[in-house]
UniProtKB/TrEMBL annotation:
It comes from the Bacteria. The lineage of its organism: Bacteria, Pseudomonadati, Pseudomonadota, Betaproteobacteria, Burkholderiales. Catalyzes the isomerization of citrate to isocitrate via cis-aconitate. Its EC number is 4.2.1.3. Pathway: Carbohydrate metabolism; tricarboxylic acid cycle; isocitrate from oxaloacetate: step 2/2. It comes from Paenalcaligenes hermetiae. The gene is acnA_2. This is Aconitate hydratase. Keywords: 4Fe-4S, Iron, Iron-sulfur, Lyase, Metal-binding. Residues 76-587 form the Aconitase/3-isopropylmalate dehydratase large subunit alpha/beta/alpha domain. InterPro entries: AcnA_IRP_Swivel, Acnase/IPM_dHydase_lsu_aba_1/3, Acoase/IPM_deHydtase_lsu_aba, Aconitase/3IPM_dehydase_swvl, Aconitase/IRP2, Aconitase_4Fe-4S_BS, Aconitase_4Fe-4S_dom, AconitaseA/IPMdHydase_ssu_swvl. Its cofactor is [4Fe-4S] cluster. Transmembrane segments: none annotated.
Length: 916
């Protein structure tokens, strides 16, 4: 760590018998720079700059600028942030390791040393996104699902085992252990990081970036961490600092405490709604005030976890006594705990409830005002008070039926297409609002619109929070004691984020009650929240298809975007785990849960929600009795070892990976084909066509779905051609190491609506290379455009690319032949990812969009002014000509580093050339 040390900030911190070199923020204060006033998150960034000052990427001017931070300024000043570590989950981690393997090969071909492609910071990958709920509601469900998971994913797991051996600084947490964010919170996060270099021990704040947008969960611990695309994470792994603009910081003051009967989930859904409404994309959010001390660490983590749902980069809580208590509870060593406390106090990072830092903007929330809530049916920020859930559901159902009515469908078609152009399976079926269903055991029941067909206790957001998990188990206990059970059409599942959850359920004697209601353990992983909900109950699925029914999922997750949870489920609601149990008993969204009869007991007496809802005191009593430090210590002592299945996987040992040409999971990607040692000059875009014209809130799920591979789609046809049967298609997420599947899956979400092909849902467009511009799949059209060397553009509305930080949403876009996206606004990570793959993100002029400009999408586009990048300039705008329409589009290359990435054709090419 040799560097200029312009501010003489290097000092010493002794904790017990150990001394550490630290970079003291007080040195800046002593030199007249008022860093005491800075928000917590900016102090962490400032220490990062002090420690990594090298006179090139980080200079004294950068440090001085951040120390003198102006809270009223708009973000326009770039700094280089160097995270201490990187965390990956397997959906995004496999392609990251595939890219590293491909970079080793490209390095060798360019005459360099392949071993230079190696993580330079600690990288920890948790396999948590691959388990699918194939089996549910019995005691062998967990074992069966893990067996199927290994059968499906053995190629991927062998590849990761190779990576663990081939790369330094790379560890893998095997399947069946937990969800990456919960493992990160309960075990991997150090809060204060230590490193030995040339015989000297250094201590500095633990910071990390992760390839999952919910990485900010550890903000609850005081760890500055956020989600980045896999592309950006790869650069961080290879020692490249992350370029960022100094953000605005929103101070969020908390007062009071939560009322009786209100959960952390209700709190976080309220905060999500408030912050999304306020507008925090690209900003830091920081919680302060007297209410902070009253927020348990698990609740802080739940709030931090939802950062991507409201759009902030981070949602920070400072370090305090509650942090120390949690570190001790979760089995961290006493030496580490002592270091965290001593370092935080020495650096002015310890929470002082009476000190108010300066902030750019302010919000305030009295915790006593929170009411029970859910969110849906398709966005996490659409909070609905539980008291209004039934009328809100009925209103949404009516709107959905109106949109899907045959009259609307025919009207849309008349605008421009003959009906024969529309794929037959997209034409509407006869709609029935109810159907008689017979189950496998001979039971007959009526399935109605609004039926809850999936009830899942799942997702990192809630399963790391003992208060809501214990509450769910107590609801199950009270319900079982009254003779209640789930409705026969509800697919129930329990997928905790770590084994600690099932440990404390066992110790509290609560497991049998969850099992009795069908909430048996199905796996330790993301499952339903990521789209791995597995098939519905067969007779239910058949009735939905035959009658075009509108059914519902309820889950304790953070994502409920269209088409994400299950292709047959049109409405999805987020809620606390105890409410998931309650709705499984009710079996329908068409109920006033707070006032209607939930069910009748064995004696025929009515049972209401209040009869089975536990008190805060009851929940707390179980927590105190059932949760102990040794649980966490035992649960994590061999976290990287894995079970017998993992240990017995054959592992090839080689510097470079031996690609299997027959593999349908891991293929050599084409990013470095014909790559030269020097980049080609950037060119303007001429004679381009529109591949898709999209509306607002198009998510990365719409662009690159992670869930089921639907039959008869291009990806399904590719797998069929390679001898894969539909039952083994697995999910898009699990096949991210195969670019052939992922290109075909780009823009293939079953709920995508491309305005170029009205009347269709799914991955369809018009192909302007063919006479009459017929409707075809987006993939097939893109092949024709590529063959004729026609560049492509995407037109989109507001919040383009919101949702999960899915690298394939950018990679697939690039591989389809898209050169530019023109949107009204972008979500932070997706814009960055597009640049990282060499796709130009442009923005419509302020107040304008495709509609106001009169763009239909059938025009020929030319984009000029891009070549200014060849001369070291970042043009503010470029000229777009579309048929007879011309406008100036705003160039969303926000930093000089991003300009370099784009000039090189992408971040991986830039890093590879740098390492040469």
């Amino acid at each position: 760590m040799s560097h200029p040390n312009s501010f003489k900030a290097r000092g010493e911190l002794t904790v017990g018998s150990q001394s550490y070199q630290i970079f003291q923020l007080s040195a800046l204060q002593d030199q007249g720079l008022d860093v005491h006033r800075l928000p917590y998150g900016l102090k962490i960034l400032l220490e990062n700059l002090l420690r990594t000052e090298d006179g090139v990427n980080v200079t004294a001017d950068h440090i001085r600028f951040l120390a003198n931070w102006d809270p009223s300024a708009q973000p326009d000043y770039e700094i280089a942030f160097s995270p201490a570590r990187v965390v990956l989950q397997d959906f995004t981690g496999v392609p990251a390791v595939v890219d590293l393997a491909a970079m080793r090969e490209a390095m060798a071909q360019l005459g360099g040393d392949p071993k230079r492609i190696n993580p330079l910071v600690p990288v920890e990958l948790v396999i948590d996104h691959s388990v699918i709920v194939d089996d549910f509601a019995h005691n062998q469900s967990f074992q069966r699902n893990v067996e199927i998971e290994y059968q499906r994913n053995v190629e991927r797991y062998q590849f990761l085992r190779w990576g663990q051996e081939a790369f330094d600084n790379f560890k893998v947490v095997p399947p069946g252990t937990g969800i990456v964010h919960q493992v990160n919170l309960e075990h991997l996060s150090r809060v204060v990081f230590t490193k030995e270099e040339n015989g000297t021990a250094y201590a500095y704040p633990d910071t990390c970036v992760g390839t999952d947008s919910h990485t900010p969960m550890v903000n609850g611990l005081g760890v500055v961490a956020w989600g980045v695309g896999g592309i950006e994470a790869e650069a961080a792994m290879l020692g490249q600092p992350i370029s960022m603009l100094v953000p605005r910081v929103v101070g969020f003051k908390l007062t009071g405490s939560l009322p009786e009967g209100v959960t952390a989930t209700d709190l976080v859904l309220t905060i999500t709604e408030m912050l999304r409404k306020h507008g925090v994309v690209g900003k830091f959010v920081e919680f302060y005030g007297p209410g902070v001390s009253a927020v348990p660490l698990a609740n802080r983590a739940t709030i931090g976890n939802m950062s991507p749902e409201y759009g902030s980069t981070v949602s920070m809580f400072p370090i305090d006594e509650e942090t120390i208590h949690y570190l001790r509870l979760t089995g961290r060593s006493e030496a580490q705990i002592a270091l965290v406390e001593a370092y935080a106090k020495a650096q002015g990072l310890w929470h002082d409830p009476d000190h108010e830092p300066v902030y750019s903007e302010h919000l305030e929330l009295d915790l006593a005002s929170i009411v029970p809530s859910i969110a849906g049916p398709k966005r996490p920020q659409d909070r609905v008070p539980l008291s209004s859930a039934q009328p809100a559901f009925r209103k949404e159902l009516a709107q959905l039926e109106k949109q899907q009515s045959a009259a609307d469908y025919d009207e849309a078609l008349k605008e421009s297409f003959p009906a024969s152009d529309v794929p037959a399976h997209d034409q509407p079926k006869k709609k029935n609002t109810e159907a008689l269903v017979q189950s496998e055991d001979g039971q007959t029941y009526t399935l109605k619109d609004g039926a809850v067909v999936i009830a899942a206790i799942t997702s990192c957001t809630n399963t790391s929070n003992p208060s809501v998990m214990i509450a769910a188990a107590l609801v199950a206990k009270k319900a079982h004691e009254k003779g209640l059970t789930r409705k026969p059409w509800v697919k129930t599942s329990l997928a905790p984020g770590s084994r600690v959850v099932t440990d404390y359920y066992e110790r509290a004697g609560l497991t049998p009650y969850l099992d009795a209601l069908g909430f048996n353990l199905v796996g330790y992983g993301c499952t339903t929240c990521i789209g791995n909900s597995g098939p519905l109950i067969p007779e239910v699925a058949a009735a939905i298809d035959a009658n075009d029914m509108t059914v519902v999922s309820v889950l304790s997750g953070n994502r409920n975007f269209e088409g994400r949870i299950h292709p047959q489920v049109k409405m999805n609601y987020l809620m606390s785990p105890p409410l998931v149990v309650a709705y499984a008993i009710a079996g329908t969204m068409d109920i006033d849960l707070q006032n209607d009869v939930l069910a009748t007991d064995a004696q025929g007496n009515p049972v209401y929600l209040k009869d089975i809802w536990p008190t805060t005191e009851e929940v707390q009593a179980v927590i105190e009795q059932a949760i102990t430090e040794d649980m966490y210590r035992r649960g994590y002592q061999d976290v990287f070892a894995g079970d017998e299945r993992w240990q017995q996987l054959p592992t090839p040992e080689s510097e470079q990976f031996h690609w299997d040409p027959q593999s349908t999971y891991v293929r050599h990607p084409p990013y470095f084909e014909q790559m030269r040692a020097q980049p080609e000059p950037v060119a303007d875009i001429e004679n381009a066509r529109v591949l898709a014209k999209l509306g607002d809130s198009v998510t990365t799920d719409h662009i690159s779905p992670a869930g089921a591979i639907v039959p008869m789609t291009p990806a399904a046809m590719y797998l069929t051609e390679h001898g894969i049967e539909p039952k083994d298609f697995n999910s898009y997420g699990s096949r991210r190491g195969n670019h052939e599947v992922m290109i075909r899956g780009t823009f293939a979400n079953v709920r995508l609506r491309n305005q170029l092909a009205p009347g269709t849902e799914g991955g369809y467009t018009r192909d302007f290379t063919q006479e009459g511009a017929p409707i075809t799949t987006i993939y097939d059209a893109s092949r024709h455009y590529l063959a004729q060397q026609v560049p492509l553009v995407i037109l989109a509305g507001k919040e383009y690319g919101s949702g999960s930080s899915r690298d394939w949403a950018a990679k697939g876009t690039m591989l389809l032949g898209v050169k530019a996206v023109i949107a009204e606004s972008y979500e932070r990570i997706h814009r960055s990812n597009l640049l990282g793959m060499g796709v130009l993100p442009l923005q419509f002029p302020e107040g304008q969009n495709a509609q106001t400009l009169g763009l239909l999408g059938d025009e020929v586009f030319s984009i000029t002014g891009v070549t200014a990048l060849n001369h070291g300039q970042i043009p503010k705008t470029v000229q777009v000509k579309a048929g007879d329409i011309s406008f100036e589009a705003i160039v969303r290359i926000d930093t000089p580093s991003e300009a370099e990435y784009f000039r090189h054709g992408g971040i991986m090419q830039y890093v590879l050339r740098s390492l040469m």
